[in-house]
Write a structure and sequence with these properties.
Blueprint (H helix, E strand, L loop, with lengths): L1 H28 L1 H5 L7 H22 L10 H24 L2 H8 L2 H12 L6 H17 L10 H23 L10 H20 L8 H28 L2 H7 L2 H12 L7 H26 L1
Helix pairs in contact: 1-10, 1-12, 3-9, 3-10, 4-5, 4-8, 4-9, 5-8, 6-7, 6-8, 6-11, 7-11, 7-12, 7-13, 11-13
Length: 301
């Protein structure tokens, strides 16, 4: 009976972990339409505001529930989370600064397929080819979403931007895998990590950027959403997902993020419906269905 109960608990955690991963993907998909609404706000200032807000709100919630001590965890788990989040953003920012955004985004979004392949090599349990096929379909679909960069040239600066874009993807894939080692560490620790990233981002902002305060209620609302959603809840949910869900599955499903991001841009009037978009929808949704097939088969058995 205890074995059955233990199995049920593991399945429940995996379901909640997968749900948390899907929530993260949904929140991340709104990042593009959110950040592009604030082109006048420097990038590290946005990180400072977003992570700072997540830290303040999260700390208040932990204080009211008597769980502040959960932010105090072993240094290794802290460094893993801090380096994963911070360097992902730094490399992504540098890549977008030096090279065409569409191609940098494509290189950065190689992380799901890196994740799936790495897990195929490292995992001791049976690996479903459906995960790899789903990830490849998602990658091809995402390529269809990327606009052509007219007049782009290749030089040292652009190549450097591509390298930074690729590094951001590598960092995120490694973080997502390594974070599994700290499954016993409470997700509440991430609130403290958000505070650390906010402090470092603030320091970098004051060293290299000019402070531009939000000049409208709309800007303030967008920043508040950024801190609560794509930065706040999203990273806590991803932490829980990487510790409890099937990483191969959520890696394959992560290609839904650029698809949903494009859909948000269409709804906001910043992109139009094209054949490439419809074809991408078919590939990405199809890839997600293929990737989820082993899970459905497992439930049916």
């Amino acid at each position: 009976m205890s074995i059955i109960k233990k199995s049920a608990i593991i399945k429940s955690r995996m379901f909640l972990g997968t749900s948390a991963g899907l929530l993260t993907i949904l929140l991340w998909s709104s990042s593009s339409v959110t950040i592009t609404s604030l082109p006048h706000i420097p990038r590290f200032q946005l990180l400072w505001f977003g992570f700072g807000e997540a830290f303040i709100i999260g700390s208040i919630i932990l204080a009211f529930t008597g769980r502040l001590q959960e932010m105090v965890q072993p240094i290794a788990s802290w460094l893993t989370a801090f380096c994963g989040l911070f360097f992902f953003y730094v490399f992504d920012y540098l890549g977008l600064s030096f090279a065409p955004p569409a191609k940098v985004t494509l290189l950065s979004y190689l992380w799901p397929i890196m994740l799936v392949i790495a897990l195929a090599i490292l995992s001791k349990r049976q690996f479903h080819i459906a995960y790899l096929l789903g990830a490849v379909m998602g990658l091809v679909g995402m390529i269809c979403l990327m606009p052509a960069d007219k007049g782009s040239v290749i030089n040292f600066t652009v190549v450097l931007g591509y390298i930074f874009g690729l590094l951001s993807g590598v960092v995120w894939a490694i973080y997502s895998i390594v974070n599994r080692k700290y499954a016993a560490v409470p997700t509440a620790m991430m609130i403290g990590v958000c505070g650390g990233i906010a402090l470092v981002s603030m320091a970098i902002h004051f060293m290299f950027e000019t402070t531009i305060m939000p000049n409208s209620l709309k800007d303030i609302c967008i920043i508040l959403y950024l801190g609560c959603g794509p930065i706040g809840v999203a990273f806590l949910a991803w932490d829980y997902a990487t510790k409890n869900a099937d990483l191969s599955l959520i890696g394959s499903l992560s290609y839904l993020a650029p698809l949903l991001s494009t859909c948000w841009l269409v709804l906001a009037g910043r992109a139009s419906v094209t054949f490439s978009l419809l074809f991408a929808v078919l590939l990405i949704v199809g890839g997600a269905v293929v990737a989820a097939y082993p899970l459905k088969k497992e439930k049916g058995s």
